[in-house]
Amino acid sequence: MASPCQVILSPNTDSRPADSGIDMIVVHNISLPPNQFGGNGIIELFTNTLDATEHPYYATIAHLKVSSHFLIRRDGQLIQFASCLQRAWHAGVSSWQGRERCNDFSIGIELEGSDDCAFANAQYLSLQALIDALKKRYPIRHIVGHSQIAPGRKTDPGPFFDWQRIT
Ligand SMILES: [Zn+2]
């Protein structure tokens, strides 16, 4: 990793199928509460410690068992929740070019953000450094948005994510 990475392991992971090659990165956005940045909600969601009474929206999601491999906060800070060798639970029902269950063969990267505003420059820098590191370890052939593998169901990373800024 190019920069120090904090590790907070999520229980919401399991083993990848034995024959699944890791060749995809899925880019997401998340903010908890929605459109508020800097709090602990995302970490709490991924570690099953979100307090359903803390915010009306939390009551609708606190029961979910979800995770991603990485979160990039607004200042570019990188947090890892799962080994890339494990399957994180970020994509849900999904398919890409005829392959279903994208969690099986993908690495999930959440950007702290929303569909309604631009991402921070520091996030693009951190994301590209992470992509570069992952490409050295895995034969990544697809970098896609959650909305592309779950169309009609998911909209993230949203219209403000600038695909031109990553390679
Ligand atoms: Zn997503």
UniProtKB/TrEMBL annotation:
NCBIfam families: PRK11789.1. It comes from Methylophilus luteus. This is 1,6-anhydro-N-acetylmuramyl-L-alanine amidase AmpD. GO terms for molecular function: N-acetylmuramoyl-L-alanine amidase activity. Its EC number is 3.5.1.28. Keywords: Cell wall biogenesis/degradation, Cytoplasm, Hydrolase, Metal-binding, Zinc. Pfam families: Amidase_2. Residues 10-158 form the N-acetylmuramoyl-L-alanine amidase domain. It comes from the Bacteria. CDD domains: PGRP. It is an enzyme of class 3 (hydrolase). It is found in: Cytoplasm. Belongs to the N-acetylmuramoyl-L-alanine amidase 2 family. Its cofactor is Zn(2+). It catalyses: Hydrolyzes the link between N-acetylmuramoyl residues and L-amino acid residues in certain cell-wall glycopeptides. The keyword DNA-binding does not apply.
